[in-house]
Amino acid sequence: MGVGFGQVLAVSNLYLIFFLRDVSAELRCCKSTQHLLQNAYECVWVSVRPRLQTAKKIDDQGESDLSTVSKEDGFVVFDHVQKSYDGEQLVVKDLNLYIAKGEFLTMLGPSGSGKTTCLMMLAGFETATHGDILLGGKPINNIPPHKRGIGMVFQNYALFPHMTVGENLSFPLEVRKQGKSEREENVKRALDMVQMGDFINRRPAQLSGGQQQRIALARSLVFEPDLVLMDEPLGALDKQLREHMQYEIKHLHERLGVTVVYVTHDQSEALTMSDRVAVFDDGIIQQLAPPDDLYERPENAFVAQFIGENNTLKATVTGIKDGIASVDYGRGTKGEALAVNCGDVGSTTTLSIRPERVEIGKKSGPNAVDANVLELIYLGDHIRCRMEVLGDDQFVVKVPNSHGHKHLVVGETTKVSWSSEDCRALDA
Amino acid sequence: MILKTLLTGVAAAALLAGAASAGSITVVSWGGAYTKSQVEAYHKPWIAKTGNQVVSEDYNGGMAEVKSQVEAGNVTWDLVDVEMADAVRGCDEGLLEEIDSSILPAGADGTPAMQDFIDGTVTDCAVATIVWSTIFAYDNSVLANGPTTIGDFFDLAKFPGKRGMRKNPKANLEMALAADGVAAADIYTVLGTPEGVDRAFAKLDTLKGSVVWWEAGAQPPQLLADGEVVMTTAYNGRIFNAVAAEDKPFTIVWDAQNFDLDLWVIPKGAPNKDLALDFVAFSTATEQLAAQASYISYGPVRKSSAPLVGSFHNKPDLEMGPQMPTAPENFATAIQSDFVFWADNQDELNERFNAWLAK
Amino acid sequence: MTDTTGPLVAADGTPLKRKLAQAMFRSRARAFGLVFPLVAFVIAAFIIPIVALLWQSVHDPRFANLMPLTTIELAKWDAVSPPTEAMAAAVVADMIVAKKNKTIGRVATRVNREVSGARSLFTKSGRSAATLEAPFMEALIAKDKKWENIKIWEGMKIASKVYNPGYLASALDMRYTADGSIVRQEEDRRIHIMLFARTMEISLIVTIACFVLGYPIAYLLSTLTTRTSNLLLILVLLPFWTSLLVRTTAWIAMLQAQGVMNDLFVVFGIATDTDRFSLIYNKTGTLIAMTHILLPFMILPLYSVMKTIPVSYVRAAKSMGATNWTAFWRVYFPQSVPGIGAGALLVFILAIGYYITPALVGGQDGQMISNIIDFHMRKSLNWNLAAALGLVLLVFVMFLFWLYDRLVGIDNMKLG
């Protein structure tokens, strides 16, 4: 009797504790998002920049391939897919996404944006409320998960704790009725692929997080699926290991040519690994583009804010000519910006300028304004300068620590300027 | 239990305060209609007369609780209603207080107590109150032409259906032998030999598989009423009560009835021994014994009570006399339960009975 | 620092080890002080009574204490030759004292357990013991012919053993004889081994039934939202919260011949009105009632283990091509094994000791070993035999624990 009642109490208490923990974690997340983005940007930029420069060349040929993936030749196709859990709210609103064979596509977005739901619908663990999902040209809405032949890596790895590493990898082969010798060969190859050949007889609990991650990866690939889904697979690893694994996954993808759909909320992961990134927010793909486009040519204010560091200024459009918009910042200050996604004359717009594209000291040009230096932070390769520009005291400029760069002093007033092409006029 | 503690607590407090001389005793009996008859005939008049309180508890017989209490030195019972064999055994083992028979009042007609009580009903440690009997009964709405002899009880061909029996060799073995043709007077002679015991168990074997075993006296009328059994052994008072008070269509078969005594005993070291003795003297007086007989069909052990036995307490036309085990028309084949035999043989026969039961 | 080979010393020069022990002593003393009340309580209220009771299964000084002279004489006797005059004299002398101390009844009870009929012999002879004169053997036989019977003397010899293997032998359907050997009990008095076996059988069936019924429920509970599952848990726990009498009455109303279940069977043509099923007052009744009452002990450990198995395991298995059944059997089930182990052990061990339920609804073939222990505790007052049966049961349960530890591993068990 005591046992029974105690159990009930214990269970409900546990529930309460978990609930509170989740909520507080959520809150912590929100508070630190800004810091996170700033930090992430630092490292992303360091790692991505060289890639972008080389990628640019490839893009000239390659980008056209991916941007023209059509419904007909898409390997994975989401066709007007909607999903609702409660019949009142749509978690995924009219999703149309075509993924090419061999592509590494990342679904990036904050939590609750619908990206994981999309992944689970593709895997077959959730059913679409409306619309079709096609794999290799065939609708898979009514095919159960185990017949879809999709490899999957989970956030917590989902390695079976009661099986050894070898048995874990052997499992998908067994259910496919592969012979013993063939199985052993495939398992060994898969383990060697992730440099874990020596661990075949270990149990998952005896491995570190990074090792478990590799095993999970090997297990999702061992049966040679055409499509692998990864649901925040690096979320539980520390920063250094995470970056290392990003490259490993990237290289595996390049080597095997398998199609990967990758879900993350970490933009550095998305930018490092992907061929294309679909930025999700509010159940809608905000922008689908290769990483450099996403960074350099965001199409709306959400993407500009979400990817990398960004200075935003509010203005009113006063005229548009040859793709260049004339804007009025108010208080008599005017300027020019690239008309990307702004409304007609008279509408307000959000201007987005990357901190590294701002020049200091140049007194003329269409976009030269007064700036008041508020804070200087020395960061080695550059100096981060926070200043007040056009009433915005969070305006950040990065001054490269190059030979002969301008020395600033806190409190000093100077001029900042940027080219019209680097200032993107986006939706309000 | 809580109530009991509370009551004694209140009583103790009252004693300590010296506000009143009222005390309280714990009287333990068999529950149901039987305890009710005692409450009406003994407890209430005694409470009215002395101002003391009576806490009534139920049990299922045996010396076990008494033994536990006495050996643990924590006696909470003051007075217990027991069967003869237990009274003798408890007395022999020193578990019971001796009762001086001089405290018993003379009969209402002036007969000295020791001549008024039927022979053997007052022993060193116990004073009897009633004669009761184990009989068998059936539901006459189910069996229109019901059984009339103990042979019928053991005749599954003539009367198919389940039988209810007490989970105890006592009375069952006697009835089995009677059904097998042994005369009432010879039962214990036969049962005293190994062959006689085998014979009794062989007769019980014929019923095995068709028996629902009961333990508490309140169960058999319920088994009959539920249709779980077609006939059952029972204490005669319980069946009578079901008929008289609840209008159940039950009929008692008196053939080979086993009669026994119920007696008051006082556990050694009872907390309120003097009050208990007073209660014993009061409740075994002629009038009280006769009064009890108007609530339940158990015969009073005082000769002087017999003429006072009238009708059922709320049915003036239901004469109690013919309902008694001792009524001549019921008594022809009666077997007196032999407490010496049972005191000597119950260990062995219980063991054998349990082994037989479990197989 | 100067002497690196000697023992390390603390700053004040005392050896470091002693210093450490001093420092540890305080925290140890505090820890001990905190648990001491509980330890004392468990020892006083649990261990000592149990040991004292079990001790009775081999230790019975009653006869030796009450009949000291007889005990000495019986020890000299070989149980084969005729009883001697010295034995008779000792019996008479002891009986006079026992009668005076009113302990003759206890002696009678003790010997009667070995030889039926000894009770009345002792109580009767005790009354007249003081009047007897030598030669005592003739005098005793003159009072009662039973004294001629060598079985009476054998019975006394057995009873006079203070350390007496008779009870344990009896618990295993064997008999301790006067000449010190142990032989099998007569056929029609063998009961305990059969009851031990039946107890195992019933416990095993109840455990399996609880598992079969409880596993799907526990799984369902673990997949529901906490709110719903707590509500369902209350339903599961309801039998705990109903009083024994209400529960028993409900079982009787449901299961008896004229009860709800049988009425339904008749309505659906599964049984005929004249030939109804016996669902109560037999083994079936015991099984049904015990499964009902023990089900929560299976469900709760299962539930608490299943609650911790992430849904991603089964999803992973399915994504690798496993069917629903394979995913369950190869991946989910092995991880619920700790819960099964805990639940099964809990149910089985509780079932072994159950006695109220079988007593109420078990009839004759639904009785278990605990019912016999209860009988000897409360009815026949043979506490020594009850203790012996309890000891056998305890040893058996310990053996099962050991076996479980060997097969599954006790640390591989999750109670919650």
Kindly describe this structure.
The complex is a heterotrimer of chains A (428), B (359) and C (416). In chain A, 35% of the residues lie in helices and 29% in strands. Chain A is of the alpha+beta class. Chain A has 2 domains: 54-301, Rossmann fold, CATH 3.40.50.300; 310-426, Beta Barrel (OB fold (Dihydrolipoamide Acetyltransferase, E2P)), CATH 2.40.50. Chain B has 359 residues and is α/β, with parallel strands linked by helices. In chain B, 41% of the residues lie in helices and 20% in strands. Chain B is built from 15 helices and 12 strands. Chain B has helices spanning 2-17, 32-50, 64-72, 84-92, 113-116, 150-153, 172-179, 187-191, 194-205, 219-226, 236-246, 273-283, 286-292, 328-331, 339-358; strands at 24-29, 53-58, 79-83, 126-139, 163-166, 211-214, 231-235, 250-265, 299-300, 311-312, 315-319, 335-336. In chain B, strands 1, 2, 3, 4, 5, 6, 7, 8, 9 and 12 form a 10-stranded mixed sheet that branches. Mean pLDDT of chain B is 89; it is low at 1-20. Chain C has 3 domains: 15-47, no CATH class; 66-159, no CATH class; 192-412, MetI-like fold (Orthogonal Bundle). Helix content of chain C is 69%, strand content 1%. Chain C has 19 helices and 2 strands. A two-stranded antiparallel ribbon of chain C has the order 1-2. In chain C, a hairpin with a 5-residue loop joins strand 1 and strand 2. The chains are: A alpha+beta (428), B alpha/beta (359), C mainly alpha (416). At the B-C interface, helix 3, helix 4, strand 6 and helix 15 of B face helix 5, helix 6, helix 10 and helix 18 of C.
Summed over residues and divided by their number, the pLDDT of chain B gives a mean of: 89
Span from first to last CA of chain A? 63 Å
Q: Could you tell me the strand content of chain B as a percent range?
A: 15-25%
- Proportion of residues in β-strands of chain A: 25-35%
> What's the number of structural domains of chain A?
2
Indicate the topology.
The complex is a heterotrimer of chains A (428), B (359) and C (416).
Chain A (H helix, E strand, L loop, with lengths): L1 H66 L8 E8 L8 E8 L4 E5 L6 H9 L6 E6 L2 E2 L10 E4 L11 H11 L4 H14 L15 H13 L5 E5 L7 H18 L2 E6 L2 H7 L2 E6 L2 E6 L1 H6 L4 H6 L4 E11 L2 E7 L2 E7 L8 E6 L5 E2 L7 E11 L3 E8 L2 E9 L12 E5 L5 E4 L2
Parallel strand pairs in A: 3-8, 3-9, 6-7, 7-8, 13-20
Antiparallel strand pairs in A: 1-2, 1-4, 4-5, 9-10, 11-12, 11-14, 12-13, 14-20, 15-19, 16-17, 16-19, 17-18
Helix pairs in contact in A: 1-7, 3-4, 3-5, 4-5
Chain B lengths: L1 H16 L6 E6 L2 H19 L2 E6 L5 H9 L6 E5 H9 L20 H4 L9 E14 L10 H4 L9 E4 L5 H8 L7 H5 L2 H12 L5 E4 L4 H8 L4 E5 H11 L3 E16 L7 H11 L2 H7 L6 E2 L10 E2 L2 E5 L8 H4 L3 E2 L2 H20 L1
Parallel strand pairs in B: 1-2, 1-3, 5-6, 5-7, 8-12
Antiparallel strand pairs in B: 3-8, 4-7, 4-8, 4-9, 10-11
Helix pairs in contact in B: 2-13, 4-15, 7-9
Chain C lengths: L15 H40 L6 H5 L1 H9 L8 H16 L3 H11 L3 H11 L7 H8 L6 H10 L6 H6 L2 E3 L5 E3 L7 H32 L2 H16 L2 H12 L4 H8 L15 H24 L4 H9 L4 H29 L3 H6 L7 H10 L4 H25 L9
Antiparallel strand pairs in C: 1-2
